[in-house]
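Quick note —
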Amino acid sequence: MKFKKHISILLIILSTSIASAQIQFQAKVSKKKLGLNERLRVDFSMNKDGDNFKPPKFNGFNVVGGPNQSVSNSWRNGVRSFEKTYSYFLSPQRKGDFMIDSATIEIDGETYKTSPIVIKVTKAIDKPKNGNNASSIASENIHLVAEVSKSNPYLNEAITVIYKLYVSPNTGVSNWRETKDPEFDDFWSQNMNPKGLKIERGQYKGEDYQFVVLRRTVLYPQKTGKLEIEPLSLDVTAEIPTRRRDIFGQRMMSKVNVNVSAGRRTINVKPLPEENKPDDFTGAVGDFEMHLSTSKTALNATEPLQAKLEISGKGNLKLFELPKLNLPSSLEVYEPEHNEKVRTNLSGMQGSISDSYTIVPQYKGKYPIPTISFSYFDLKTETYKRLSSNETIINVLEGPVYGASDNNLSTEGSDKQRVVLNNDQFAFIKTNANLVSKNKTPFFKSTAFWAGLLSPLLAIPLAIVFRRKREERAGDIIGNRLRKADRLSKKYLGEAKKALGQKEAFYVALEKALHNYLKAKLNIETSELSKDRIQILLSQREVDTTVISEFDSLLENCELARYTPITTVTMQQDYDKAAKTINLIDKQIR
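Predicted structure written out below.
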């Protein structure tokens, strides 16, 4: 009997040990149904320590806290109890049913997964106003506001959005982070974030508050109608005073996280008036001046001169094209060099843009640069205005005369002699030709006759279609900007190839080529060329992650090369990689 009793005790101990040795890895949530303005806590716990913990992606939620790690060791009746927990705090993004996917961890060489959990998010709930509820106090005393300078601007008129965080005097803020960036679809935008945060005093709904300006953004609407500005959202760590006091009698503070949003704003963009709209209007809106200048007005043939057409003032300077010079064919004109000296402040773009032409006259004479006309929409008077330049005369003093034969070109200062003619000067010309027509079919009413008669009539509709297409292309501001960026990308890539071996020039040209390529392909501005933004846009356009990584590494190489020694071999490798990566993006982008 005693032997059987000892065996029973031994079996009980072994079964207890096996049960206690069973590995557990599970997920727990604070609630499975919550309001849009509530928080969710998710705990991933295990009874044995492991490696390579991988949380789920938490689709539909913003992670506002965590991961927080805690470890618990305890002994009870001689048995060790271990628990390790990873905790996350989540804020729902929208209403609906969402799944917390499985987390994974490796324990003793095996991979364990938690079971998925479905969470239902309902509309925001009314939280009870409790003086001791820190979250409720923080929500009532912290506000994020988007101030729009004008809600009904004209197309291509500058407006400003200023985001301010208001905090009541009895509440503190120790930290915040952006959980959702505002989106400016159908706007040209440029951020002007303040370098330092300055605490100012103001009023919110008639009460005294302190506020800081978080960001300023200048927008130029590119479409008419109602355009939406997506909200900016923040997760704010607030400090709320409690009823407790420390040993020095000072009130103790309680920290709590609260989510604040500026809310969605609607901008109603007015179209520019059609009445009295000039035929050559290309979308310029603002207040401008035009100036045409030449480096010289008197020169000899084959000497170059510079003609500069400049538009200056305040308005959408980067969003329209300059008029073109129309010069006589006897003046050789090269493709203009475009230059922009534009700065952006809270009132919009200011500065100047210009096209510089290199002109080389081929013959002696006086050549006019005809009057150039430029029209724009003036926001002050809400009317169209026209600027015109004066006619400039280019006087070519010395050189060949247009129309003179190659063997006897007339030049300034050459000796002139009278040419003496004799009676036999045309003796070589046969006066009796005896011409015989081989074509016996008369030309009148022939196929060639009707073709020559009807061709001008058929050319008229073709000319009309061509003119309309040219006007549409001139009015396509965004398309022209993208085509220009594409041309610049090819230009700078060629310059990079020529500069192989010259580190500074090579990487400057390569970086410009990559940036202009992105501007052309993704329809973005230079101010938006951040690493995260590029990765998101390329991923949305179905470009492989490996290709995106290659492109990011190229941009990093361009930046690092300015401060590190680089060999010609490395430059050649970077150039080949750039050409290959651009080619792959062209094939994959959708």
